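Async update (no meeting this week)

Hi team, since we skipped the sync, here's where things stand on the single-chain job. The sequence we agreed to prioritize is pasted below, unchanged from the tracker. I ran it this morning and attached the output directly underneath so nobody has to dig for it. Comments welcome in thread, and please keep replies under the output.
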Amino acid sequence: MDEQLSLIETQFPVSKVSKESYKERKAVQSQTLTGMGRWWGRKPLSMVRAALLGMLLPATDDPQKDMENFLRLMCMDDEGLFFRLKKPFSVKELYQLAGSNPKYKNKLSNYFESDGKKIKLNGNVDKDELSRSLFNDLGYDEKLSYCDRSEQINSIDTAEWQEINKYYKTDAHSISDFVKQLSTKRFGKVMRVGDAFCGGGSIPFEASRLGFNTYASDLNPIAGLLTWSSINISGAGPDNLTRITKFQNDTYDEVFQTIDRLGVDKNDLGDQALGYMYCIEANCPECGRRVPLLSSYVIGKRAGKVIAKLIPNNSNGVDIVVLNDVSEEEFKKAGNSFTVSGGTFYCPCCGKTSPMSKVKGDRWDKDGNTISGLRKLRENEFTYAEGDVFSERLYAIRYLKSDGTRYYCKPSLRDLNNEKKIKNFIAENLTEWQQKGYIPSAPIIPGQKTNELIEGRGWQYWHQLFSARHLFYLGMLNKMTLEQKDPILLAVGALGINKCTDFASKLCSWASSVDISTNTFYNQALNPLVNWGERSFYMLKAIWNWTINSYPTNKNSVIKLSDARDVDAVCDFWVTDPPYADAVMYHELSEYFLSWDKGIINKLFPDWTTDSRRILAVKGDDHFSQTMIDIYSNLAKHMPDNGMQIVMFTHSDPAVWAQLAIIMWRAGLRVTAAWNIATETDASGLKNGNYVKGTVLLVLRKQKGSDIAFLDEINADIREEVKRQISSMQQLDDKEEPNFSDPDYVLAAYAASLKVLTSYKEIEDLNLDYELNKAISDPSNSKVVAIIENAKKIAYDCVIPTDFDNYFWRELTNAEKFYIKGLESEKHGNYQIGTYQEFARGFSIGGYSQLMASERANSARLKTPYEMGDRSLNDVPDFQNSLMRTVFEGIYVAIKNDMNPSKGLDFIKNDIPNYWDKREMIQQILSFLVDINDISNMQEHWADSAKMADALLTVVKHDSI
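Output:
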């Protein structure tokens, strides 16, 4: 078996894969695996597919052809995108596309005819040919708006297979056939892909869908269940899908009929309940009244403005009146009214405020530790008891009439009796149902994400997060699932229950804007609420009857619960997305679902544990680095000599790169490439700072050499490798649809430096253990961090704006380069402050704030020449004393003198003694500013400066002695 480089080690279509990943992310719940169940941080399938194919495909001596065929396989070339069209273009759409296309808009009558009402194609126009031509002229983003997502595509056009088979000397007609054939041709067998942190199953699922054999493991049984289900349920096939749908429908109908017979989701009129609104009540520490805790008085607004009105009663409590169709003024006032906000209680009766700690009766010991005033609920309790600090109250219900009308009302006597009926049933059956595994009995283990449940609400057991009503609904579903014997149906039931629990807990806020409760895990936490919403069983139907996206998969897969340090399976490709640094607390959050699934998992996987195994989880503590070294040493050991690994992570901080690189180095792996794929949407909740809205794919092979070097000897090698890497990326880049931006070149520089470093067995004057500790505790004095930072500077010197001549670029000061790179970024619509911070570090610029018109997170931008005016910029001396600064002042002077470019030229000539020697550079700077007038997002603030740059350029060009 050879060790020929793979395509992903030489090139990767970063921009296109990023755009596909972003489109997939924006699909939210309709993503192929997301609808199967909640897991945190699943990677996009389109990115996983691209990475796996990039590992499989060889890099040949024709990189252009390599990329063409990769895009064919990904269905991301022109033909593939046209194949992915959701539906054929209508004539109206073609007319609109042609009207916005410069090649067609002046000759529309050649293609279309209109009678004033309807547009038709001319009789001699081939609609398919016109559609292809107009579609191919669109940019990649526009094309995607008309296409199905790449993750939804399981085949490609027959004509494409002819080109692919010819290039790779295969005879395939499906992607799985191709993978098996090329894998056998290149490596002598069907390759096995392993993932030792399988989580939500993205990597094993996509690998099996591509036709690879797969191995997947995780510590967590919920991760194991999701991964098993991704391959066996999403790959179930038509016959199984029919059985699954029947099971879902029959189970739902039977539970619904039981609830209907009891009448607990209906009122006296026979109207169907849709949602219930609850709140906590507590005594005001000042006046003693029992007060509802509400974060807002607004109830709903979608079908009419509905609010709650609080009125003190004669029983030392507060009545809640539900008012429908209130005025705009009343509604606005209700939106600004609350009894709890930001940890402070506001009494509507006495008007006094108290901290919630006082409401709860908290106290402190002599060491300042909080002692909660809440009584902790016992295992046989599911709600608060008489005399507890808190009690729970149903205060509004949303109903559906038979004619489709929806309305809110306060609970009637019938509604309150229904509550008692459900509570009595659960009280009588709680112990038995817990013993049979229908509802949870597991305790909540204290932890970073679970402590608030215990201390903030007094809940000690998972079933206490659910009302009696939802314990009844979910317990019935669990009971019927446990009666199944078919593994597929057991798993479908478990996932359905998990999905329902996500939308059926006391942690679900009521979304008044859409009149429905949201889900528990709207973020990566367990947040107790003072008021919440509960869905009726009627409203859980679409959640229980979840849609299965079915695709053929290779069932030659092994799924285990295993510590990554103990994995004993040999895999040709390891692709992992490990918990890193401040990781998501998967082990704690998943216990929410695991508490419901224990009975099903025991029946479905008898040899699996039903414990989250917190103690073994990878945590960002003092042991993190050694744990990661142990894990990746083990994976390297269980990989053939010609095997590969990809490690995914999401940091851009050079110190974190250094940590990860040293970890992999110590594990016996060497870096061969790195690519950054944008995978996160704007609302993903990622942190600011050193996090990137994307995923870095770090490509690795086994460390085989025994060479030893000195650090000062390899600096020249690093410089050459960085230049070579960036040069190769620039040569391969698509000028019309650029694949790479500055951050991609920086990451490539990081990878290039690590390729050189990790190619050696050891470096004489570099102690890896010491350096790892330095990278973590004192990165500013780490030699490896310094190497990576230096690689960034080399990269910025190499990445020259397309409008600049290489010679002139080298003549600029670092401050001028900073400004030009920043402005180039703005031209591409990037206004993130992090971009300027990176440029400042890359060009070693301090005090750059003087050059900024705004430093707000997502609307940062540079000052225009006019905004700089003639003010001194002493914080940036390299800019203040530069040629660019003089040119900018010339623009300012010309604008101030009635837009007269001659005045600007006079200023420049007077300020620059060697004007004639610098004339070409002046023209270069002005030329870079001229096209800003054509960029819509910059016109507002650049209008005068760009217009004057154009005028000044003309007079400089025509200036003569």
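Quick observations from my side:
The CA atoms of residues 92 and 119 lie 7 Å apart.
The chain has 36 helices and 28 strands.
Reply here if anything looks off.
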